[in-house]
Design brief:
2 copies of one chain form a homodimer. Chain A contains 9 helices and 12 strands. By secondary structure, chain A is of the alpha/beta class. In chain A, the strands form 3 sheets. A 5-stranded mixed β-sheet of chain A has the order 3-2-1-4-7. In chain A, strands 10-9-8-11-12 form a 5-stranded mixed β-sheet, sandwiched between helices. In chain A, strands 5-6 form a two-stranded antiparallel sheet. In chain A, helix 1 runs parallel beside helix 2, helix 3 crosses helix 9 and helix 6 crosses helix 7. The radius of gyration of chain A is 19 Å and the shape is globular.
């Protein structure tokens, strides 16, 4: 039995077909253009397969409340042309299948949650942050997503500013120096005039970044007390997380007991940016079981 | 059928007996002295009644993981004499009843959650903060508490400092200027030399307080997307929350859509500091149903 995954990003879409063991049987990537053109490619792709359900992990914000007339829509996105797009409706009109619709980070969170279960970790809850072009987070508790009046937007909390970074105004168009405004990929250009991949880890800017990312981990820790926190996205690497763990230990100051930080603040277990695809497969299967 | 409630604070204990409609039938208060003396008073009080279960909402930190050998303990509290106290064990040794053991703020969160349900509000999740001598928070999602590796400690996240408060070092012995270090009751003495109750709301210090409390609401909003956020504790009043809502609207900047803020950021619905007692009754009854 096959299911489909749509990882809908602002730059590209990744569609995949998986079997009941969550193995990828086929995959396609294409750039995100207009909603009509892009979503038609999704439909045309899946029409080639005998899939039974689809999991969609989408850029946002999106409407996930089933009782909303706008359920299944991409809502107030700054992405040109996509505001108020009936994503689920477009797909359903041509593919009458059960669809699980959630955010990109929720999809990744679920993929990492499932991966942990498959690895026989005793895990009840997990928080997933992406630190990339944008910053966002999702949470799974006991197999369910967190969020009643909408999905989390963990990338926009405010932070204690690093003393060596006081004058940086941040890049978030909504909040200036919120988490996303301080640690998203584009902050490198703004702070040091070149992309993050060209900034060596010995540069002090990485200490500043680690201090802020550690505060995101602190928020997730103290509000959720999750079993683990996963960081993905283009800004993150294992050496960066090593710095984050050091800063995290400093600001937590032993206040609550936690698992070994090397196992608590971690990179995605699913390789090749595949967390969301795995999550989508699992969510599609979950729909079919219910 | 009767159940018991223990609201265990660092200064005083409030024990109560309630019926199946959560109505208080009897209540007693006494100061918190040594663990042995205080907990024996709890036992002696309940021995007078034919209660079937007990809900305990305790100051912390406490061990709530059932699989821990220290389950039911008050753990690393700075409260003299109480560190490593087997709270649940002491009670169970003399009263062999089902006991639900959770934090004070979780108890209050649950009481407010139940109160909302009784008022026929369609509510799935709720966050409760207390801003008093200490600062803490608890969350209920779908009738369950949040927290896998322990209970939340929402009072110790870091915040963006108010420009007019940069030099204040904060009062938290663990973190200096964390949320508790910036807005707990004792900060008034430290900032303006008198207790908060003597500081008129027109004093600028309240704007600073509101800015920080609004950041707590922002964190809860963006990480949980709850149906509502309740603020209790000695620092909070409706006029203070009016200031908090104004600051919250400014820093959120319309980023996510929310219920009317007057119904979203609210005082406890249960009057007379009774949220935790109601929560305890409901949790005791929940135990008996399970």
């Amino acid at each position: 039995m096959l299911v489909g995954s749509v990882e809908a990003g602002g730059t590209k879409f990744v569609c995949a077909v998986g079997d009941e063991d969550y193995r990828i049987q086929d995959q396609i990537k294409f750039p995100t253009t207009t909603p009509k053109e892009t979503l038609q490619k999704v439909v045309d792709y899946f029409l080639q397969f005998d899939i039974k359900a689809i999991g969609i992990a989408s850029f946002g914000p999106i409407e996930i409340r089933k009782n909303s007339p706008k359920y299944g829509y991409v809502t107030k996105t700054p992405k040109p042309g996509w505001e108020d797009t009936n994503f689920v409706g477009f797909i359903k009109a041509q593919l009458d299948l059960p669809i699980f619709f959630t955010t990109d980070v929720n999809g990744s969170a679920y993929g990492e949650y499932v991966m942990s279960l498959l690895a026989n970790e005793k895990i009840d809850s997990l928080v997933y942050y992406t630190i990339g072009t944008g910053v966002g987070g999702g949470a799974v508790i006991g197999g369910d997503f967190v969020g009643s009046v909408g999905h989390p937007e963990m990338g926009h909390t405010l932070l204690k500013r690093h003393p060596d970074d006081i004058d940086f105004t941040g890049v978030c168009p909504f909040h200036g120096d919120c988490l996303e405004g301080l640690v998203s990929g584009p902050t490198f250009e703004k702070r040091v005039g070149r992309p993050g991949k060209d900034v060596p880890l010995t540069d002090h800017v990485w200490d500043v970044m680690a201090y802020y990312i550690a505060q995101a981990a602190l928020q997730a820790t103290l509000l959720f007390r999750p079993d683990k926190i996963v960081f993905g996205g283009g800004v993150i690497s294992e050496p960066v997380l090593q710095k984050v763990r050091v800063e995290f230990a400093k600001i937590l100051n032993g206040y609550v007991s936690l698992p070994d930080l090397d196992k608590y603040i971690v990179m995605p277990e699913v390789k090749g940016n595949g967390s969301a695809t795995l999550g989508d497969f699992a969510l599609a299967n979950k729909l079919l079981r219910e």
